[in-house]
Design a protein that fits this description.
Length: 595
């Protein structure tokens, strides 16, 4: 067998060294993309339509419903850290995907069960009718069933998001220039999978939920999730698998900080070669990763200071760490400012999934005389656009940009993220303008107290598509750029957790949305007739437009902070090192990345 066919550090499903001609590659990754498409088909409808379910079926008020949705989304994303830790350390990424997808399937099944049987939900009523007196919120065992099912879905979705992108990237050898470019394309096509699954979810499944019943809508989601499991499992013999060692790279990062605290009184040596590193010639070093020492965050180097008490064959890892361990800790610490700058974007996204949907409920949703578009289906517009623009971006824009920049991804990851952050600010500004226009129509037609759905305003819901459209383009730049950035920069044994930087950023954004909504309502309670900018169920009398302007300004300020952060960031040496000079031009320090 040609030794070149073997892939270092990857095995097949039977534990044998993976072969390039039999395992992995872009063709195999299509199964992973298909599974992700089915998963998004099953769950994306929840992200946009759960608020309607909470208010119309479970009879929660709008603010509480919005907060429950953002808490659910935030929990789903924050759980990615736990699942990624288990995937990288004990389970393996493919097994983690299968277990998580099965849990998600169970949660969706329970939601369908509750929606089907009347005994499991409150009696019917119209929560928007101020004369209705029999609207009872879901309580007791029914509320418990609702949230158990919902958070099972959150756990499963978090697990899939934690392990599946990294498992997909494992199908490529980043040391092979051709496969390195294919891996960059994989992340673009990962968004394409989200869009294809999302397009079906936002149209077909949302329409079923709104017109044929929530029970049938949840049932279709359950079937989609089942198909996703089958598609993913069909590729088990063809996948490349990352070898897990049973020890956690995350634990090694923690050991660095503990060692720094314990060695805080020691003096750093002038020569960095005196810091501790295992001998590359030793048998123990065969499978070890080695990183060169860097001069950033020098205080962490104290974890690698050797003393007479630590010089032994097996030093205490909580007192003496390898230089490579320390460098991995520096890499993660270096990424934290970028992570923090992306939280605000999810804060904006949360409003499009909650308040913007409820804006749509007050507007004219007709497409033809006999067909109305559900407001929750509005995000289909940027999704459809992305389905066409992603292949153009990947096959035309990136190769053209590559010729000018010498960078395999066309533009750097951080440049891509920055474009998305600007567009998210613009999206919120457009949302504020559209809300002013909607309220003006309500005022001009004496419909400030009109009941949503029953008395729609004479203004088309498609006016809201502009804000969704702009944010959809921001999605393509920022979220895909972040996935590539975190995966490429993270230490080898933290690839699953690297994708969780994105999901955790989104989790913080969703939780922050709950805090911001409550804070804004409390701060404006006594200065508005509605009892707060976002208080009450009547959007015609509250001040959602001011809230959107606030988010737009926050996003713009965040972008200027991001410029400062990105200029200071230095890329990981092994792949490429890009530095932004004072004139704002990015210079490639290692041309190997651009091959």
């Amino acid at each position: 067998m040609d030794k070149a066919e073997l892939i270092e550090g990857k095995v097949d499903w039977k534990g044998r060294t993976a072969r390039k001609d039999k395992h992995g590659g872009f063709r195999t990754s299509l199964l992973i993309l298909g599974a992700f498409a089915f998963e998004n088909m099953a769950t994306l409808a929840l992200a946009v339509n759960l608020v309607t379910y909470f208010t119309a079926v479970m009879h929660l008020n709008v603010a509480d419903a919005a907060n429950h949705l953002t808490n659910y989304m935030g929990t789903s994303y924050i759980l990615t850290v736990l699942i990624a830790f288990l995937a990288d350390t004990y389970l393996g990424r493919s097994k983690a995907v299968l277990i998580a997808a099965s849990i998600e399937f169970l949660g969706l099944g329970l939601l369908a069960l509750q929606a089907h049987y009347p005994n499991f939900k409150p009696p019917l009523c119209n929560i928007y009718d101020p004369t209705s007196t029999n609207c009872i919120q879901v309580t007791g065992g029914n509320a418990a069933l609702l949230f158990i099912a919902l958070y099972l879905v959150a756990l499963g979705a978090g697990g899939v998001k934690a392990a599946l992108p990294s498992h997909g990237a494992d199908q490529f050898d980043d040391k092979d220039p051709k496969e390195a470019r294919q891996m960059s394309s994989f992340f673009n096509w990962l968004l394409m999978a989200v869009c294809v699954g999302g397009a079906i979810s936002l149209t077909f499944i949302v329409w079923i939920q709104d017109h044929k019943g929530w029970d049938l809508g949840f049932a279709v989601s359950t079937i989609a999730m089942f198909l996703g499991v089958i598609v993913f499992a069909s590729g088990i013999p063809q996948y490349r698998y990352h070898v897990i060692h049973g020890s956690s790279a995350l634990t090694e990062i923690v050991q660095v900080y503990v060692a720094v605290i314990r060695n805080r009184n020691l003096q750093l040596p002038e020569d960095s070669n005196e810091l501790y590193e295992i001998n590359k010639d030793k048998e123990a070093a065969i499978e070890a990763e080695f990183l060169p020492h860097t001069n950033v965050f020098r205080f962490l180097d104290k974890a690698a200071i050797q003393t007479s008490s630590t010089q032994s064959e097996t030093p205490n890892p909580w007192k003496l760490c390898r230089v490579t361990q320390v460098e991995n800790a520096k890499i993660l610490l270096n990424m934290i400012p970028v992570f923090c700058c992306t939280v605000i974007m999810t804060l904006c996204l949360a409003q499009l999934q909650t308040f913007s949907v409820h804006q749509g409920l007050t507007m004219d949703t007709r497409i033809t005389k006999s067909f109305n578009i559900p407001p929750a289906s509005l995000p289909i517009l940027p999704v459809v656009f992305l389905i066409f623009i992603i292949p153009l971006y990947d096959q035309i824009v990136v190769p053209c940009a590559r010729k000018f920049t010498g960078i395999s991804t066309g533009i750097t990851y951080l440049q891509r993220v920055g474009v998305g952050l600007v567009l998210s600010s613009l999206s919120m500004a457009v949302a504020a303008i559209m809300e002013l226009k909607r309220k003006k129509v309500a005022r001009d037609h004496n419909m400030l107290d009109a009941i949503p759905i029953l008395q729609p305003l004479p203004i088309s819901v498609f006016w809201l598509s502009i804000q969704y459209f702009i944010f959809g383009i921001a999605d393509m730049f920022t979220y895909v750029g972040l996935l590539e950035f975190f995966y490429s920069q993270a230490p080898k044994d933290l690839k699953s957790i690297s994708s969780c930087f994105l999901w955790s950023s989104m989790a913080v954004g969703y939780f922050l949305s709950t805090i911001v909504v409550n804070t804004v309502n409390h701060a404006t309670k006594n200065i508005t007739r509605s009892g707060g900018w976002l208080a009450g169920d009547n959007f015609n009398r509250n001040h959602l437009n001011l809230f959107y302007w606030l988010l737009s300004l926050m996003s713009l300020l965040n972008f200027f902070i991001y410029i400062f952060v990105s200029k200071r960031y230095k890329y990981k040496k092994e792949g490429h090192e890009v530095q932004i000079h004072g004139n704002g031009v990015l210079e490639l320090q290692n041309k190997e990345h651009g091959k």
